[in-house]
Predict the structure.
Amino acid sequence: MAERGGSGAAGAAATADRGAEGMGSVKRTRVVILDFGSQYTHLIARRIRECGVYSEVLRFDAASAEIAESTGAIVLSGGPSSIYDEDAPKPDPAIYDLGVPVLGICYGMQAMSEALGGKVARGTTREYGPMGFSPEGEHRLFDGLAESNQVWMSHGDEVVAPPDGFEVLGRSADGKIASIGSDERKLYGLQFHPEVVHTERGKRLLENYVHGIAGIPSNWSPESFVEEAIEAIRAEVGDSTVVCALSGGVDSSVMSVLIHRAIGDRLVPIFVDNGVLRKNEEHDVIGRLAGGLGLKVDKVDARERFLTKLAGVEDPERKRKIIGTEFIRVFEEEANRIGGVEYLAQGTLYPDVIESVSVKGPSATIKSHHNVGGLPERMHLKLIEPLKTLFKDEVRKVGAELGIDPDILGRHPFPGPGLAVRILGEVTAERVALLQEADAIAIEEIRNAGLYDDIWQAFVVLLPVKTVGVMGDERTYEHVVAVRAVHSLDGMTAHWFPMPHEVLERMSARIINEVRGVNRVCYDISSKPPSTIEWE
């Protein structure tokens, strides 16, 4: 099909109303995304950032004064509500008069239309999944798109009459209004989702909006983030000493090096052995990070302390809260011992924040993270979270910019509460030891097969059931473990990894033969959504 011209742009990150301001909040023109609860909101942010433009996700009801600061464009996300619902989420109407472009996507287009006098009605038919879309006439929003494009729809309501001053910019294959706009006011709407991969040339459309219409240049990168984050860290902490939780994962490693780059030895990384770490984690982490990165690591053996607190606890949220609280208490005690400490640094990321902080309806709290929703209400240290506006893949890029060993940056994610949330049911020293061995075997077989770097995350879960088996002609009644491996880009969505059968066979045979107490191995083939990556 013929294409229609050219131009480009894009960005992402969420902030929580907790602790210190997000480090590296770029002092340049940003795109603000107002979240009405769409499962795709984070994808809008990602696509914009991929084009070199910084953006932040704010609640749908953020005040226009807050939105206006340093903002060059606004995006209204989709959402599960109907504009006719009694409690339908609606943005501050003043955003339409800020003089910056606004793009409403799906529900966002309906909310804009209803607020400005257009007519929204329940559709006679719903549009879900792939649909055809054709622009009407020439418009710079659709530069580079074909005369007919496949897009992703997900709506039951529809705009049947645009507000005064708006024109129809495009229609779906069945003739329904699929895009509207007012060039005079720079207000635009799309009934489909350009942020998902199912929409052809969707990223190009977002580039046209932020670069072509909003005029925002590509000015965000890992390099610029590092420079600005270091400056922000220095300004935030002053002459104080900072302690940080060093787990050896990608997030805490990048965070530690970034803060060390900013304040030197006034950073004290603390490695807490909480009794629910992976096998040999202490040796691997301290040896690699202290030696390879020049960090002076303070080690605390708190295994008995944590396991005592977890005794008899089966509820996953209680586990997270207990571990989060106990971590803070350990850090506070260490800070008192060190002296002059005012700040606790953590490697919180955007997915941690968005899954722990609920906006109305939609992006409901899925689970609390020990370093977000799991923190105690009263803390004696101020929080500093320099990575909380980044996705995991962006953290890895920042780590590469900092010169961190690729082997560290390539490690699979590991939850803050550790194996406690991979042991379904009560956590005991014996169950931890069993899971450590099974998990180590699974990861070793994945590495031996050359698959480790092809997988976003892989691990073993200990289930709270036992099954009958036969070993050496004798009946056994032992534990079941499940192996989980997924593809993902940022942890917000994931697909199960098609593990080769021969790898699964070796994994299963070794776990059953070498780990006393296990007689059955299962493989998890569920994706996120509807499942989460972790089981708890």
